[in-house]
Design a protein that fits this description.
Elements lengths: L6 H5 L9 H31 L3 E4 L4 E2 L5 H24 L5 H28 L3 H6 L5 H31 L6 H23 L7 H14 L27 H18 L3 E4 L1
Length: 274
């Protein structure tokens, strides 16, 4: 009997194991909730309760109270930007961490940074939202709106460059690896969109907030993930750590429990008091 031909087997390329989609979605669920609660809970609700509000309703789409101020309106964005800076510093010391943890820090930073920078442009163009409240009554008003748009475009472009570069360096994924790059960026985008959409349907402020707040803030602010690979500087080389994200049941379990609480509890809203 002839011996088996091992030549073909020796040179046949080994199929690379893809990043686990379920774990990516689970990490993205947690990251999206962290970004939203930093914006609504810490940036708006906590700041309002400590500067004049006696009580208010906190939901997944908004904070509502009788008390209002420019500081409270700006607080959500400022907290997101501060959180992005903290997460960027964490990434600098976590470059050798497991890929799932690196990805969590990175995508959470991305959500916060895109929300923070995107809000300037959103309010400037639509004349709606947090920064419309911040500049309301300022004259000449057209100049303030124009300033928001310019700041928004410049800062969001910078955010895409920073986040895209970190994806390449920290996750070890080349922009030429289109399949993996899209897997690591599009799955978080649509996961956050679905989570915020489902939770938003239960909000106490009406269905319009689903489109004006939940979906606009998520779909619009995070759309940089869709085109991210086109904004990575050409000289950026993949880092030494290119391990894929493997199935992690701990992340999946935590994300499932937190998503259920986010939708069922924060979806309809909770009343907070001083």
């Amino acid at each position: 009997m002839a011996a088996p031909d091992t030549t073909t087997a020796a040179v046949r390329p080994t199929m690379a194991t893809p990043d686990d989609a379920l774990t990516i979605c689970a990490i993205s669920v947690v990251a999206s909730m962290v970004s939203t609660m930093l914006h609504e809970g810490l940036g708006h609700a906590l700041l309002a309760l400590h500067t004049g509000a006696a009580s208010g309703v906190l939901s997944s789409v908004a904070w509502s109270s009788a008390f209002d101020s420019r500081l409270v309106a700006a607080g959500g964005t400022l907290v997101n930007l501060a959180a992005a800076l903290v997460l960027w510093l964490c990434l600098r010391v976590a470059q050798n961490a497991p890929p799932a943890l690196r990805f969590f820090l990175l995508i959470t930073m991305a959500f916060n940074l895109f929300t923070g920078t995107g809000y300037f442009f959103f309010s400037g163009v639509t004349n709606f939202g947090d920064w419309e409240q911040v500049i309301r009554g300022q004259q000449p008003y057209w100049l303030w709106r124009t300033g928001l748009i310019v700041i928004g475009v410049a800062s969001y472009w910078g955010a895409m460059v920073v986040v895209g570069s970190l994806f390449v360096r920290l996750m070890g994924v080349s922009v030429k690896d289109v399949v993996r790059f899209r897997r690591l960026t599009l799955l978080p985008y649509f996961t956050a969109l679905l989570l915020e959409g489902f939770a938003g349907l239960l909000n106490p402020f009406g269905i319009r907030f689903v489109f004006e707040s939940a979906l606009a803030a998520t779909a619009g602010a995070n759309c940089g993930l869709i085109w991210l690979r086109y904004y990575v500087p050409k000289q950026t080389a993949p880092g030494p750590h290119s391990e894929v994200i493997r199935r992690n049941y701990a992340w999946i379990a935590v994300a499932t429990l937190l998503a259920a609480a986010f939708i069922v509890i924060l979806g309809p809203g909770v009343r907070l008091r001083r």
